[in-house]
Write a structure and sequence with these properties.
By secondary structure, the protein is an alpha+beta fold. It has two domains: 2-133 and 294-305, Aminopeptidase, CATH 3.40.630.30; 141-260, Gcn5-related N-acetyltransferase (GNAT) (Aminopeptidase). 23% of the residues lie in helices and 35% in strands. The chain has helices at 24-28, 84-98, 115-124, 169-181, 242-257, 272-282; strands at residues 2-6, 36-43, 46-60, 63-75, 103-109, 131-139, 159-163, 203-207, 210-221, 224-232, 262-268, 286-298. It has a twelve-stranded mixed β-sheet, with helices on both faces. A hairpin with a 2-residue loop joins strand 9 (210-221) and strand 10. It is elongated, with a radius of gyration of 23 Å. It starts with a strand and ends in an 8-residue tail after the last strand.
Length: 306
């Protein structure tokens, strides 16, 4: 018989291998009152499953409301196909409903053996159809075959490519002011994860006495550089070839250095032009392609929205 329990912090040690390494610290702080919620499944004394969620706050028209983010769910291999995952999900939803949270969401990556089963749970429990927020293109030295690398793309004299490490303080201040004034640019900020930026492959493009574009890369582990943020000003798009030049130069620098051996390209769904280009030209040289997807479910409508 399977039993379920809302876990306290001192009950979580036996469940630590049931979530991702990045969420283990959160699990250790689980409490029935939140903000970290953990529900465990037992067979007798043996832990066999876990669902982990975090309560978060959003401001809607001046009022704060709580919602839940489902961080992970896992059931031991010997106990799958018995409805345990679905029951863990049901119990979490009951808790969300009882606490009058406005909604719940989850973000996950595809390309795993568990993806199909996870999406069946979402559908069974009435969650919105998942939307791909980011597409990841992973490659290795096979990217040497990219046709872009065989020719030199000349840019107009008004555009110059420079190593990101040579960004001046004045230019950085100007960019930060632009980011503050335009929230839509925030996801492409060149200043995120500054301690992980690879200055050997990150580049900028100067244009009209300012910075008109950038390609920022990050070390994510000893084997991989992530091509994280590619942006060019609207006035540079479509005809100058600045985006392709930034990408080409960064890849050349990466290959010339020879390490790390893998590259991971990240393309947001709100950049359809880049996504189309990556699928057409880069995908044939990838070892894997997968997505980050998001799904949500509304629970209680905020009072101030009628």
């Amino acid at each position: 018989m399977i039993e379920y329990a809302l876990l306290k912090a001192d009950q979580t040690a036996a469940f630590e291998e049931m979530t991702f390494p990045s969420f283990k610290a959160a699990l250790r702080n689980a409490s029935p009152d939140g903000p970290i919620i953990a529900i465990g499944a037992y067979r007798g004394w043996l832990p066999v499953g876990l669902i982990l969620a975090k309560l978060m706050t959003m401001n809607i028209e001046g009022a704060d409301y709580q919602f839940a983010e489902v961080l992970s769910i896992w059931v031991g291999p010997d106990f799958r196909q018995q409805g345990i995952a679905s029951e863990l999900w049901t119990r979490l939803e009951a808790l969300i409903d009882a606490r009058k949270l406005i909604s719940a969401r989850t973000v996950y990556t595809t390309g795993k053996p568990s993806t199909e089963a996870f999406e069946r749970i979402l559908k069974k429990h009435g969650w919105a159809d998942p939307i791909a927020s980011i597409t990841f293109f992973r490659t290795d030295t096979t990217i040497e075959g990219l046709p872009w690398l065989d020719f030199e793309l000349d840019l107009p004299e008004t555009i110059s490519i420079f190593p990101w490490g040579e960004l001046t303080e004045a230019e950085a201040d100007q960019l930060r002011a632009r980011l503050a004034a335009n929230p839509d640019l925030a996801p492409l900020s060149p200043f995120e994860e500054a301690d992980k930026i690879d200055l050997g492959t990150s580049l900028g493009a100067r244009w009209q006495e300012g910075v008109g574009g950038w390609l920022i890369t990050h070390w994510i582990d000893a084997q991989t550089i992530r091509y994280t943020s590619l942006y060019v000003d609207e006035g540079l798009r479509g005809m100058s070839g600045t985006a392709i030049r930034l990408m080409t130069d960064a890849i050349r620098l990466h290959l010339k250095r020879g390490h790390p051996p893998q590259a991971l390209f990240c393309v947001r769904r709100d950049n359809p032009t880049m996504l189309k280009m990556m699928k057409k030209y880069v995908a044939p040289y990838c070892t894997s392609i997968y997505e980050s997807r998001i799904s949500f479910k509304p629970f209680h409508k905020p009072d101030n929205l009628g």
